[in-house]
Amino acid sequence: MHPQISADVCGFCILKGTHMSTLLKVTNLTIEVAHRRLFENLNFELPANALTCITGENGVGKTTLVKHLLRDLDLNYTSHTTCHLKRSQVQYVPQLRNIDDDYPLSIRSFVQLGFKYHFWPWLNQAMKVKLEQVLAETNLTKIANQPLGHASGGEKQRAYLAQALCADPSLLILDEATASLDRSSKHELLKLLKQIMADRNLTILFITHDPELIAAYADYELNLDNHTATVTKKG
Ligand SMILES: Nc1ncnc2c1ncn2[C@@H]1O[C@H](COP(=O)(O)OP(=O)(O)OP(=O)(O)O)[C@@H](O)[C@H]1O
Question: Which of 29, 30, 33 most suits a substitution to test ligand 1, by most atoms within 8 Å of the C-beta?
Answer without folding.
Answer: 33
